[in-house]
Amino acid sequence: MSTTTSALEALAAPGRPRTGAATTERPRRDPLRLAAKLAPLLGLAVAIVLVVWGLQSGVLASLENLQAFMGGLGAWGPAVFLAASAASVVFPIVPAGLLVIAGPVLFGPIEGTVYNYLAICAGSLLNFLIARHVGLALIERLFAPRTVEKFLGWTRSAHFTRAFALAIALPVAPDDLLCYIAGTTKMRWRTYVTIILLCKPWALIAYGLGISALVLRFLPW
What we know:
Blueprint: H1 2-12, H2 31-57, H3 63-72, H4 76-90, H5 96-107, H6 109-134, H7 136-142, H8 145-155, H9 160-169, H10 175-182, H11 189-218
Helix pairs in contact: 4-5, 4-6, 5-6, 5-11, 6-10, 6-11, 8-10, 9-11
């Protein structure tokens, strides 16, 4: 009986060192948390490689060349962009903010904003769905504990739904984390979908179009 109890305790608390000879063992690293930390660096490395290739091939020589290249990809261009943007909301491979800026640059202000809207909304809805079925266990592995605890404090307020809607409308908060956290609350699916669909466009227009306009203005194109 004691052996079985010890085994169950070890499984319940994998990070807690056991007594006796096992105390010399190092705690195992969480592969998902490690991947979450390394993913942005991998995304940055891929971005640098693409920029170097674009400069050498002439694709980044002018805005016309870049948009012509994207147009030449046909449906694959928007499809890859939509998939990458939605994935960046669910898992931080590439900062979603960079792709929001890239949308209007690659596809033009109207088409790029529409693609941003579709991708970010899809990723945000998926975040809520994942959190609703998995709970805080996954969130605490993807994000820093202090940050998670900070925004969990919002859920203890009676005005959380209103604060959440305002945060989604304004590009001032980590939307991906907030969407995960909303999935752990009693917020109705219908309420969440309404907030995402109605509030997301304003942040995308203010941030995506505004920053991309500055980027195009100062780039030597």
